Amino acid sequence: MIVVEHRYLGHSGLKVSEIIFGNWLTLDGQIAEDTQAACVRAALDAGITTFDTADIYSRGHAEEVLGRALAGIRRESLVIATKVCLPTGPGPNDRGLSRKHIMESCHASLRRLRTDYVDLYQAHRFDGNTPLEETIRAFADLVRQGKALHIGVSEWTAAQIEKGQELARPLGVPLVSNQPQYSMLWRVIEPEVVPMCERLGLSQIVFSPVAQGVLTGKYLPGREAPAGSRADDAQGSRFVSRYMSDTVLERVQRLRPIAEEAGLTMAQLAVAWVLRNPNVAAAIIGASRPEQVAENAAVGGRRLDDSIMKRIDEVLDELVDRDPAKTATMFAVMPAWRR
Asked: Which ranges carry the NADP-dependent oxidoreductase domain (predicted)?
């Protein structure tokens, strides 16, 4: 029986499932809606209670699909998170963290998700063009209006998180989470972001724990990417390409016996690895098939011992990126609106 455990989010009383179902690329128009709905049902069947999305995913379509898939499920049993910042239209105010965009985007997300409130509303990126005071006050007003219960950020640097928390706490709406990229290969949050969040009471909700699929072991050195895989897709390949060297792929294959000895699949090993970090409340998984959801959810409650963690470090060693200056650099350029 799959047991997905729940963890407190930051210093709040909100519990999230340690495995979160996310619908970035997998629900971003890449698979049929009935398959998407089946993946959501598989997540619910596996004990996953937390779902993450964003207004920019497939230009709002992903939120609509998630809203339809969750229709009829007792709302109080779910934790729904979405995000705001990246472009949702062609206009000059259709992006960023201005009060106007935050308010309008929140209302649009609620309509698409078919709910009166979201449990977690997150700043998808930092907006250096808007006064942070304006951003935090807008989030605080949404909390007071009952349209968001908690607020968080995504891919903010340690300094940005510190300043944001400094402004949020006096308003009674402290930041409770940060959503960064984090995996065995990408550890840029460890030197600065994690220590700052531990001090300020935020948890990490990490995305891409399997490094865009590379840590599943499906990509083999010297071979073309499997047809239909993320590396074979025009959109997905933009994010996975930096891991596709034979050097990286050969090292990843050396993780296979470690996973087998632990009784885990490669994907499960990668998810269990990020959950070993005490500041990580949850790992976001995506799936294009219901069985993928069940596989990743099955890692719930599994904890890697120190010897396994050490062996993983010995295999990957110099390939690991720990440079905190690279926080959000993969997504630093705000994408243009696509009709």
From this structure: 18-316
3-state secondary structure of 201: coil
Catalytic one of 57, 121, 182, 219: 57
Active site residue 182: no
**Residue whose structure tokens are 């930041």:** 175
Please state whether 4 falls in left (phi above 0), alpha (psi between -120 and 50) or beta: beta
> How does pLDDT run across 113-151, given as a tens digit for each residue?
999 999 999 999 999 999 999 999 999 999 999 999 999
Q: What angle do CA 225, 231, 237 make, to 5 degrees?
A: 150
Please report, as a single letter, which amino acid is at residue 107.
H
Q: Domain locations in the chain?
A: 6-210+275-302
What is the identity of the amino acid at 104? E
pTM of the model: 0.93
**pLDDT one-digit tens code per residue, 87-119:** 999 999 999 999 999 999 999 999 999 999 999
Strand 6-8 relative to strand 175-178, pairing: unpaired
Closest CA to 166 of 158, 157, 174: 174
| CB-based contact 190:198 (threshold 8 Å) | no
Nearest to 153 by CA among 114, 124, 128, 182: 124
Just give the CATH number of 6-210+275-302: 3.20.20.100
Tokens representing 311 are: 């062996």
Which of 308, 244, 254 is CA-nearest to residue 276?
308
- Could you tell me the maximum CA-CA distance found in the chain, to the nearest angstrom? 55
Q: Would the CA dihedral through 159, 177, 212, 339 be positive or negative?
A: negative
- Beta-bridge mates of residue 298: none
Nearest to 185 by CA among 211, 217, 163: 211
Burial of residue 27, with CB atoms counted within 10 A of its CB: 0-12 exposed, 13-18 middle, 19 or more buried:
buried
